[in-house]
Amino acid sequence: MLEVFDIRKSFGKTEVLKGIDFKLHDGEVLVIIGSSGSGKTTLLRSLNFLETPDEGKIIVDGETIFDASAPELSDAVKRQNRLKFGLVFQSFNLFPQYTVLRNVTLANELLCIEKERAQTGRKPSRARKAEIAYECEAKARELLCRVGLEQKMNNYPFELSGGQQQRAAIARALALSPSVLCFDEPTSALDPELTQEVLKVIRSLKDENRTMIVVTHEMEFASHVADRVIFMADGVIKEEGTPEEVFGNPKSSALKAFLAHSK
Amino acid sequence: MLNPTFTAVTLNLLESFGQNLLLFFSTLVLALPLGLLICFGSMSKFRPFRFLLKLDAAHIEDNGEKPRFTAVVLNAVGDFKPIAAICRLIVWIIRGTPLLLQLYVVFYVPGLVFNMPIRTRMTAALIAFVINYAAYFSEIYRGGIESMARGQYEAAQVLGMTKTQVFFKVILMQVVKRIVPPMSNEIITLVKDTSLARVIAVPEILKAAERYSSNGLVWPLFYTGLFFLIFNGLVTIVLEKVEKAFGYYKN
Predict the structure, then answer these.
(1) Helix, strand or coil for residue A237?
(2) Edge-to-edge strands of the sheet including A85-88?
(3) Is ipTM strictly over 0.85?
(4) Residue B126: pLDDT above 80?
(5) Which of A80, A87, A157 is facing B158, going by the closest CB pair?
(6) β-strand pairing of A212-215 with A180-184
(7) In sequence order, what are the residues at sequence separation of 6 or more whose Cβ sits closer than 8 angstroms to the Cβ of residue B135?
(8) Taking Cα atoms as reference points, which of A106, A89, A52, A83 lies closest to residue A182?
(9) Over 90: is that where the pLDDT of B68 sits?
(10) Which chain B residues have a beta carbon less than 8 Å from that of A107?
(11) CA A27, A165, B158: angle at the middle one, nearest 5?
């Protein structure tokens, strides 16, 4: 379970997040909607340690992974904690010099080698490293098949369509088995046709009971995939509820106006 | 000596061109890593006086009034990055003055000022060239690193990579691809610049040719151009191969 308490963040004089609280149970999908500049992206980036909130607390499965009032975490601990989350970016951000398969295996392999080193107290042998690489590759292949990229594993990102790149990026995030997978407007850079194939993958992840937070402008999709919807405006959560409540029965004028514009 | 054969001149020039090549390769091997070091230095964010920013006196009220002098000073000192400042100062001086002058300085100043003359002329030339080219290389590296999209760092960070892993596994290869063309330019310039070592009497090819011209035989002087041309042709082929080796992907 993810618990977020009173997250606040300012950039200079601009207060982007003015106290965000929410809880997310395992297997739930939370969709965050709101107009540009409402703080949705900053919230996701804070969860993934790409921004450091000025105030607030983040707890995953009872473990405090961020607390603004506590002393700053060391890089190693921060690194450990951020692995609770995965993030899929709007602009994919695949590593262009590696094949799709390598994009998915790279980080996992580095982490597995590091873990083994911590356990045994010495560098794994070359043979053991090859074994680890083999295991990571097997997992990566499975994930790439699941997102429908079995034909593209050995291609480079520039050879893929936007939708394929984004699906590869999803596989890459899944490779580290995060507790919570975050999507930051995963389809905003795609045309409608490609959008559907990415949304289909996200839907299939929901069927596997993955805990996810999705920032999106696709209202249709949001209403189908979400267990809960948060509407953000001006750095606060304006409305929160089931898709039926938020989309079917908006209370604030801000949400009514936002939904009217999105149609 | 007065009327040497074409073969004799060619062999003589070729031998002295060896000095140019020695200077070229040694400079390249030493300046490439040194340049990276200077580059890291000039991008260093190390602020030893950072604690000053946290003092109450350093707080600048945002109320439209002119901030107090002490606050301005404390903020400036607190933000000071000494390593970056030193590296940028060095780069400014080296890029802002002629290489020719730097050769004179390295060759004469240790002897004149510190009474520690540099043993060989080649060593002096090499020191001047390495510092000079490292300064230029550092700026090319910096341009390459700073042109990287932030998303690449962030994607790697989110995947739990350490700073070292982010740089060596993700960023470096992409930077290298980007800097090959500007580097090629500098490397080709370096081939020709080695002839400047002549001013501190390194027995390189132009000095050898001048020995003929001062005796009335002018053509060997022009002939030296062919040596540079042919060698730069080879260098160009190698650099194109390198560029092609990175052509398998697009950034």
Answers:
(1) strand
(2) A85-88, A180-184, A212-215, A29-33, A228-233, A236-241
(3) yes
(4) yes
(5) A87
(6) parallel
(7) B35, B38, B90, B91, B94, B95
(8) A89
(9) no
(10) 156, 159-161
(11) 55
The burial class, CB within 10 Å (0-12 / 13-18 / 19+), for A248 is exposed
User: Rounded to whole angstroms, what are the CA distances from A232 to A22, A33, A49?
Assistant: 12, 6, 20
Count the Cβ atoms, other than its own, within 10 Å of residue B7.
8
- Rounded Cα distance between B98 and B95, Å, is 8
pLDDT score of A263: 66
Residue A259 in contact with partner chain B when CB distance is under 8 A: no
Q: Which helix (H) or strand (E) holds B239?
A: helix B219-245
Which token pair is A152?
Answer: 């593209």
To 5 degrees, how large is the angle CA A28–CA A20–CA B150? 85
> Which residue type is seen at A170?
I
Please state the pTM of the whole predicted model. 0.84
CA atoms within 13 A on the CB side of B19: 23
At A36, is the pLDDT very low, low, confident or very high (cuts 50, 70, 90)? confident
Taking only Cα atoms into account, the Rg of chain B, rounded to an integer number of angstroms, comes to 24
Do residue A93 and residue B174 have CB atoms under 8 angstroms apart?
Answer: no
Give pLDDT tens digits for A131-182. Answer: 999 999 999 999 999 999 999 999 999 999 999 999 999 999 999 999 999 9
User: How many CB contacts within 8 angstroms connect chain A with chain B?
Assistant: 63
Q: Which of A83, A158, A169 sits opposite B160 (nearest CB)?
A: A83
